[in-house]
Amino acid sequence: REGEGAVLEAIHALRRVELPEAARVGGAATLPQLSARLLAARYDVSSLTALELLRWDYKQGERVDGVAAAGLRFGIAAICETLPALLNRSGGSRGLEEAMAAAAARRGGLGLLLALTAPEEEGGRKGLVAWAGGGAEGG
Fold it and tell me: Which stretches make up the DHHA2 domain (predicted)?
């Protein structure tokens, strides 16, 4: 295609350009380095509390049909760390239960809150914690 070579050449040239001092986030000196640092930072949740993690990647819905669950408001949070790490961050199961209760209350009183955790390194098993209007159960 006409001009394709010039575009690729320009892209390669940009990759070699040194960033100005003010743009050097995390010590990145070039655009590829900056991109790598920003992508890594995107998944750094080390400073977040359990409550903040429950709000980070969250979806909510409401069941409007059916007899037993009509009007049930529920939410699910995708947690980007393992269940043991989440429990540790929460100060144990009691702390996680309190964080889930607070998250449910902040969402206007959910009847059910689920937290799906990242797979563990050994076995690749994901964790699921359920809070149902008064308690948390994990498995």
Answer: 37-121
Residue carrying structure tokens 């689920």: 114
Same domain, 15 and 80: no
CA distance 52 to 39: 20
**Quick one: 21 and 62 in the same domain?**
no
**Number of domains making up the chain:** 2
Q: Which residues are within 8 A (CB) of 59 and not within 5 positions of it... i.e. 6 or more apart?
A: 75, 76
Among 132, 133, 105, 110, residue whose Cα is nearest residue 59: 110
Cα 47 from Cα 44, distance rounded (Å): 8
Q: What residue numbers bound the domain in which 11 lies?
A: 4-42
Q: By C-alpha distance, which of 74, 44, 48, 53 is closest to 127?
A: 53
pLDDT (tens, 9 = 90+) of the chain, 139 residues, equals 667 888 888 888 888 889 888 888 888 999 899 988 888 887 788 889 999 999 989 999 876 665 455 568 899 999 999 999 999 999 999 999 999 999 999 998 899 999 999 999 888 889 999 999 855 555 5
